[in-house]
Amino acid sequence: MINAGTALGATLAVLMASTSFAAEVTARITLQLPLKNHLGQNLTLFKEEVEKQSGGDIEVQIYDSAQLYRDKEVPAAVGSGAIEMGVVSLTQYVGYIPAVDIFYLPFLFNSPEKVRKATEPGSPVRAPIETAIKATGATVLWWQPYGGTILLSKGDGLRMPETMEGKKARVFGKTLGDFVTENGGAPTLISGSEQYLAYQRGTVDIGMTGVSGVKSRRLWEVMDTLTVTNHADIEFVVVTNSDWWAELSEEHRAIMTDAAIKAEISVRNDLESIEADAYAAAVENGMQVVELSPTEIEAWRTSSAAVYDSFLEQAGDLGAQILKAAQND
């Protein structure tokens, strides 16, 4: 028979053992996309690397599918310290930094080479954006490419600008809204986590997203045609609350920084195959994929040229600075 003293001693031993294995630091990350999306998988890579290299001293918790915050809420949540880390589309900073929408200027970054050059660490496009984000209370750890922007519809593809005339289109940024307006459509701002229902209910006629999102959100269930315009480049950033980051030990910051570098290199190098797989999945699930000719692309480019003027009016000196840098590359 075990006496009370022995039982109490055993209980304390268990509690002490569990405490000794508790993480010193917990980093919660909010993500609006499903974990199976390539951005979610990239976070998993980061989590595994950090927890391995820290020997369990740092625990990374991923809250996907907008469990905690919708995309538009992430900048304020991270900047205020309500959560330690978040994944957010650059355009969600447009209210603070209008220049971030440079990546949505029609056909500016129209090749993988141009995108890579603009998003390289320390580039004259990327570096000023990261500096501006610091003023919101957040520090950028790494960038995650989401790929080129495509259009979704039911029935026919959207080959020419006039096919957008009079239609409601889902957008996820102001500059993308300007693109729709210039082509005769009516932009409707809908978050990524809500777009499936918007298409299903007919809230909008046209969808706008990255092809990887078509796969991870199974958008072929509510839209049947995909038009490959690649008229904008979608970039996400993984940000951390600057005060929380500064309070970490130098060793822990080094571990997380190294994992972030590895995660960014991995997702950027894998993007081409990720998009190819998503296009294949769309076709396998019955979607029609419409490829545009150079003449059709030029028609879209010409019809939306005024979007550049609107961007420069709103983005100020920073916008003019980074646009010049992007055009010179």
Question: Gist?
Answer:
The protein is α/β, with parallel strands linked by helices. 47% of the residues lie in helices and 19% in strands.
Count the helices. How many? 12
Order of SSEs, N→C?
HEHEHEHHEEHEHEHEEHHEHH
**How large is the share of residues in beta strands?**
15-25%
Write down the CATH topology: D-Maltodextrin-Binding Protein, domain 2
Q: Please count the beta strands (DSSP E, at least 2 residues each).
A: 10
Would you tell me the overall average pLDDT?
92
The end-to-end distance, rounded to whole angstroms, is 80 Å
The top-level CATH class is Alpha Beta
Classified in CATH, the superfamily is Bacterial extracellular solute-binding protein, family 7
User: What coarse outline follows from CA principal-axis ratios?
Assistant: globular
SSE blueprint:
Layout: H1 4-20, E1 25-30, H2 38-53, E2 58-63, H3 74-80, E3 85-89, H4 112-119, H5 126-134, E4 138-153, E5 168-171, H6 174-182, E6 186-189, H7 195-201, E7 207-210, H8 211-216, E8 225-228, E9 233-241, H9 242-247, H10 250-284, E10 288-291, H11 294-303, H12 306-328
Parallel strand pairs: 1-2, 1-3, 5-6, 8-10
Antiparallel strand pairs: 3-9, 4-7, 4-8, 4-9
Helix pairs in contact: 2-10, 6-12
